[in-house]
Amino acid sequence: MLKICADIGGTKTIVGLINDQLEIIESRKFETFKEDPIQEFTEIINIAKYYTNHFENVDQISLNIAMPGPCDYTQGLFLNPPNLQTYNGFNAGEYIENQSTFEPYFVNDTDAAILAEYQYIKHQTENFIYLTISTGVGMAFVRKGELISGVDGNLGEVGHTIIKNDSDYQCPVCKQYGCVENEISGLAISRKASAILNRQVSTKEAIEIYVKGSQSEVTAMIEEVLTLTQQLCTNLFSIFNVNDIVLGGGVTQSALPYKTSIEAYAEQHYLIPNSTLKVKISDLDANVLTGLYYINE
Ligand SMILES: [Zn+2]
């Protein structure tokens, strides 16, 4: 059975047909209608209807959707998404049920991603954390093989928890200084490198400069980003009492030594002696879209 899954991102939306092997059988991509949630969900419904009419063996009822938070995921209500401010207060669940025969299920993107990752790590553990570091930072938790998503699906909003007390950068979203997203994300690396070199520097270029070792201030800045990431992961090992973290997101696919440096730091500072704390770098493409297959199993 194929399921219709949609991943709404800040810039693009993908609607795909996914099978239980986490393969994308068909997909359509469009620019997210940032100013108009009605247009956005109308487009998603239209693609979904096309799939039910033109493909065999498609689940005709389920429409599984990952969308940026914070939302009340139990009903599909947008609460205050930083990149989709015009969606504030829009109830996607109501809209889809009124405009179609689909039954929508909503999750945040990291919750979808961890379900895809779980299919590949379950021979090793049933308890782990998924941490994504890309433009932003997000987290999800699987315990005893089950997704734990909190009272309204927002468990793991680590992006706006404080990691650097003496930071002088105020977050435009949460208004605090030194929150995770503004200290260790890809966007943060780019912002910090741009300030050092006094020109626009992409995340990719900043990491290349670090790898070359040609600019001491950039080296020190990225060393600090790595230390903060090690501390965040050690916090997560302790708070959730897990031995495994899977790291996803574009920045973790770079040459930065996330796996070895986090494991080494955690081994040194984790309180329970002789624990085997493991970090795995995700090797899945499109884990958000494909993981949606499993949200209503
Ligand atoms: Zn913040």
From TrEMBL:
Annotated PROSITE patterns: ROK (PS01125)
Pfam families xref list: ROK (PF00480)
* Superkingdom of the source species: Bacteria
Q: Which family does it belong to?
A: Belongs to the ROK (NagC/XylR) family.
How is this protein named in the record? ROK family protein
